[in-house]
């Protein structure tokens, strides 16, 4: 754990030392929480010398917004939020426009717009190599051409701890400091360091409905109930957090961090199981990444 | 019950936190079944989730090459191009753990055009698992991969003889391949080669030894990987901290951030900043949010120093007693990874540790045939070629040979226009300037310059204990020469230490460097036609010999100013002996550091009962 932490801090420092205008993606999830914690350690006693960027799809869980405000206050880091104005104008949402279109407009396009607007040349992301097959081949310093495209065949060789962060104008680099962590490591570290996380990761009675065979938390009044359909109260928690209609809850009694870890240990499904965008079509994550998705 | 549960989890988390991580690379020829074997490792160690298994079943039907059986390779071949072509293009990193260890596997491509990707995977690996297809035996690719593994400094090798199911689990086939490989790999001097027969497809000997391979008495692949030694840089080494950045949130705090490449550091330690050599002492060591008593190799830390010293990104903070080497000319192994060939003389950006400089390959000594190991002459280097080269940097670099420390001995070269990473290098050793920079032949020589001054240029080297009278004699000698119209210069130990050598201390290593510099300066002055008087304690024979060898026959005159220690100590002009006796001065010659008296000096001045003037007179006479 100590070595993983040291490696991540080394990567964060290296990125900051070479970047002109770095930013850290902040999704409010558990990986983001670990990233922020690592960044604070890397620059202690100073606060991290870069802002956090939250691409707000306007469909995040209410508890995520509350947690975000708390962490910003506590860490002294500057927060930038961004929502795609065209998306707002069109009233894009997952129920009305489908998960694919919603994710593209409110996440992928919004991210590109935000990065262009602020001219960030280096963006920290919390992706891990154990999450998804195409992630397993991504570099720690992942190069993006103008237009934020990822070309898996033109990745720079990455040897030892020598990261090549040289880029031309309009190009950018995504840096993944926790590439070598597994989901288990994340939980262990959160427990060991007592890192605050969104309470949604812990089981509680919550109003849910069955949608495409999975439990969806009804987080606000935007859920389009069918005739006669209504939410039921269930003990549920989340293994990952995204937009509330696109992230399924799992039934669980694990209401403490320790219990969550015990449950993760025995889990038979991967954490991205509850993510609806990964398995739309073969190679779907790779495609989204080539188009600029994180 | 609940509490017991929570306690178990805490114990578990602690165990996990303390588990060692072994990084290994799998390599081998194109169809040796690497991806299948890794898929099998993940599967057998229960690191595959149900939804991934389901996806595997459906993918197996769609892309699978194993008929009814599950195609384990699909678990790891992530990019769509790979699935369609059934090959592995890029390095994929996989994670699994057993009760004993955590593992990070770099699955690397077998094709020749992806050698660079293999080197990438190998650069951070402790162990290499080299796969061989039992039906095919050792192939050209097996040889190439073994060579790269050896070049990248991996010392532990596992020879996994795969697809044993296709040769009816025949022990003779296995034995023959092992004999072949052992003979071929002898030149690489691996610390260990563990040969294991396996079947990635059916799982024999991956986790458990099975009936099929009952004749094999060794461990299964996973069991071997659980106990093979991890080549962690031992923390017995000398402290080395490459400075990644300087953290300066306010005027009161100036922290040097980096990850310890070797050794350990504690508050109060004496350190030096290289390449400048400035000395300082460690004030505090900060690891995360805490000040700690000690930080060891591999830790990402911040240190503060008691002194206001100038250090910035790219410098290396090192143990003051045992600093690292600094040089700007090296011999190195170079793997070329660029599409455009490397030409000597062209400039590249070089990144080594946290330092970026401009570097030029000044010459290719020889290119190595990756398949046979043969040495060949070369004028340039193409993609995936490996050579031994001379390289010159625009600024001095702090380094250790790659075989001593991978982090301090490795570098990458970056193209100045495209910014692509085009080369990976490993330093063998520093080249001495003299052997690398070709001396500019000049029309005017030493004799001509000296003749203009109506003299013969010389180096008069006075050696002796502190307080033996060297400086007094030297001073008188120079005055006499001056009154005779000679052009002279006096290099005095104390004076030179205020300028040219102010970064040096009194350790043995520093004294050696002190003398080397002075000897070089004296040589330049002699070459300029001057009579140079050097007045240095210069306690070691070796260094005086080194100085002598810089000069031509008859140009160098060693004068031993022989005053007994008791007499020097009685005089104690500068009060240094008193201090040294009290222990306030370390490494003081004659007290706690040796003086090696000259065996055959040109002139032996016994000063007892003789005046300084008389001594100077003796030197004058010897000069004629």
The CATH C-level name of the largest domain in chain B is: Alpha Beta
Outline type of chain A: globular
The number of distinct β-strands of chain A equals 10
What's the count of strands of chain B? 28
How would you characterize this protein structure?
The complex is a heterodimer of chains A (294) and B (624). Chain A is an alpha/beta fold. Chain A has a domain of 183 residues: HUPs (Rossmann fold). Helices cover 35% and strands 15% of the residues of chain A. Chain A has nine helices and ten strands. In chain A, strands 3-2-1-4-6-5 form a six-stranded mixed sheet. In chain A, strand 1, helix 2 and strand 2 form a beta-alpha-beta unit. The radius of gyration of chain A is 19 Å and the shape is globular. About 2% of the residues of chain A have low confidence. Chain B is of the alpha/beta class and 624 residues long. Chain B contains 19 helices and 28 strands. In chain B, strands 7, 8, 9, 11, 12, 13, 15 and 16 form an eight-stranded antiparallel sheet that branches. A six-stranded mixed sheet of chain B has the order 2-3-1-4-5-6, sandwiched between helices. A six-stranded antiparallel barrel of chain B has the order 17-21-19-18-22-23. In chain B, strand 5, helix 8 and strand 6 form a beta-alpha-beta unit. The longest helix of chain B has 20 residues. About 1% of the residues of chain B have low confidence. At the A-B interface, helix 1, helix 2, helix 7 and helix 8 of A face helix 1, helix 3, helix 5, strand 2 and helix 6 of B.
């Amino acid at each position: 754990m100590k070595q993983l932490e040291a490696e991540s801090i080394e990567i964060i420092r290296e990125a900051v030392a070479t970047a002109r205008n770095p930013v850290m993606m902040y999704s409010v999830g558990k990986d983001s929480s670990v990233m922020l914690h690592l960044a604070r350690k890397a620059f202690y006693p100073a606060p991290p010398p870069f802002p956090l960027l939250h691409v707000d799809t306007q469909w995040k869980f209410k508890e995520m917004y509350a947690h975000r405000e708390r962490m910003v206050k506590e860490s002294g880091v500057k927060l930038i939020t961004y929502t795609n104005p065209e998306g707002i104008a069109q009233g894009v949402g997952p129920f009305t426009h489908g998960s694919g279109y919603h994710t593209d407009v409110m996440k992928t396009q919004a991210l590109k717009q935000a990065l262009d607007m602020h001219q960030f040349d280096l963006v920290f992301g919390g992706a891990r190599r154990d999450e998804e097959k195409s992630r397993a081949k991504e570099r720690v310093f992942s190069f993006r051409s103008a237009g934020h495209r990822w070309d898996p065949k033109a990745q720079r060789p990455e040897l030892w701890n020598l990261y090549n962060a040289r880029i031309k104008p309009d190009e950018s680099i995504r840096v993944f400091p926790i590439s070598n962590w597994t989901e288990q490591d994340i939980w262990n570290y959160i427990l060991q360091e007592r890192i605050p996380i969104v309470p949604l990761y812990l089981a509680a009675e919550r109003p849910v409905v069955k949608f495409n065979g999975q439990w969806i938390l009804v987080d606000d009044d935007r859920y389009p109930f069918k005739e006669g359909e209504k939410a039921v109260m269930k003990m549920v928690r989340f293994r990952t957090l995204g937009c509330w209609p696109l992230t399924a809850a799992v039934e669980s009694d694990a209401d403490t961090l320790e219990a969550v870890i015990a449950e993760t240990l025995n889990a038979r499904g991967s954490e991205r199981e509850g993510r609806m965008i990964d398995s739309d079509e073969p190679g779907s994550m790779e495609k989204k990444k080539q188009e600029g998705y994180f | 019950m609940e509490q017991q549960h929570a306690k178990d989890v805490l114990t578990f988390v602690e165990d996990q936190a303390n588990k060692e991580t072994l990084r290994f690379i799998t390599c081998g020829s194109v169809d040796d079944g690497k991806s299948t074997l890794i898929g099998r490792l993940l599967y057998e160690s229960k690191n595959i989730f149900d939804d991934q298994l389901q996806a595997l079943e459906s993918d197996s039907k769609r892309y699978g090459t194993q008929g009814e059986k599950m195609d384990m390779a699909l678990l790891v071949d992530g990019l769509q191009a790979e699935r369609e072509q059934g090959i592995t293009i890029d390095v994929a990193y996989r994670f699994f753990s057993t009760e004993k260890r955590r593992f990070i596997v770099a699955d690397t491509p077998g094709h020749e055009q992806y050698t660079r990707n293999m080197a990438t995977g190998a650069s951070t690996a402790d162990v290499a698992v080299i796969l061989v297809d039992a039906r095919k035996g050792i192939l050209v690719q097996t040889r190439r991969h073994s060579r790269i593994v050896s070049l990248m400094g991996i010392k532990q090798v596992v020879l996994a003889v795969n697809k044993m199911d296709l040769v009816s689990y025949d022990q003779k086939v296995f034995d023959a391949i092992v004999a072949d490989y052992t003979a071929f790999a002898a030149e690489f001097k691996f610390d260990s080669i563990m040969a294991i027969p396996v079947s990635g497809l059916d799982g024999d000997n991956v986790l458990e030894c099975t009936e099929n391979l009952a004749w094999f008495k060794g461990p299964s692949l996973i069991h071997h990987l659980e106990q093979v030694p991890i080549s962690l840089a031992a923390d017995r080494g000398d402290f080395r901290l490459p400075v990644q950045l300087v953290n300066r949130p306010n005027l009161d705090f100036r922290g040097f951030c980096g990850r310890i490449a070797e050794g350990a550091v504690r508050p109060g330690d004496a350190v030096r900043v290289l390449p400048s050599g400035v000395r300082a002492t460690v004030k505090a060591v900060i690891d995360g949010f805490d000040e700690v008593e000690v930080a060891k190799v591999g830790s990402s830390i911040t240190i503060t120093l008691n002194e206001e010293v100038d250090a910035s990104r790219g410098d290396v903070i090192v143990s003051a007693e045992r600093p690292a080497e600094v040089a700007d000319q090296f011999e190195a192994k170079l793997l070329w990874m660029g599409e455009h060939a490397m030409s000597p003389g062209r400039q590249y950006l070089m990144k080594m540790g946290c330092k970026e400089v401009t570097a030029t390959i000044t010459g290719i000594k020889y290119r190595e045939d990756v398949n046979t190991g043969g040495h060949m002459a070369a004028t340039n280097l193409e993609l995936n070629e490996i050579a031994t080269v001379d390289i010159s940097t625009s600024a001095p670099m702090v380094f250790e040979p790659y075989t001593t420390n991978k982090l301090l001995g490795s570098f990458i070269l970056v193209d100045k226009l495209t910014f692509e990473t085009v080369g990976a290098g490993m330093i063998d050793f520093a080249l001495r300037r003299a052997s690398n920079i070709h001396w500019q032949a000049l029309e005017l020589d030493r004799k001509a310059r000296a003749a203009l001054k109506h003299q013969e240029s010389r180096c008069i080297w006075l050696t002796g204990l502190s307080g033996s009278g060297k400086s007094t004699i030297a001073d008188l000698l120079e005055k006499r020469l001056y009154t005779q119209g000679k052009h002279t210069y006096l290099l005095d130990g104390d004076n030179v230490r205020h300028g040219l050598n102010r970064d040096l201390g009194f350790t043995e290593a520093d004294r050696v460097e002190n003398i080397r510099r002075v000897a070089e300066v004296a040589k330049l002055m002699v070459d300029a036609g001057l009579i140079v008087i050097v007045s240095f304690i210069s306690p070691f024979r070796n260094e005086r010999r080194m100085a002598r060898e810089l000069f031509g026959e008859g140009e160098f005159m060693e004068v031993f100013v022989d005053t007994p220690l008791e007499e020097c100590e009685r005089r104690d002009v500068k009060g240094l002996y008193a201090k040294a006796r009290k222990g306030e001065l370390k490494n003081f010659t004659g007290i706690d550091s040796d003086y090696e008296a000259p065996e055959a000096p040109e002139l032996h001045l016994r000063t007892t009962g003789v005046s300084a003037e008389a001594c100077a007179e003796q030197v004058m006479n010897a000069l004629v």
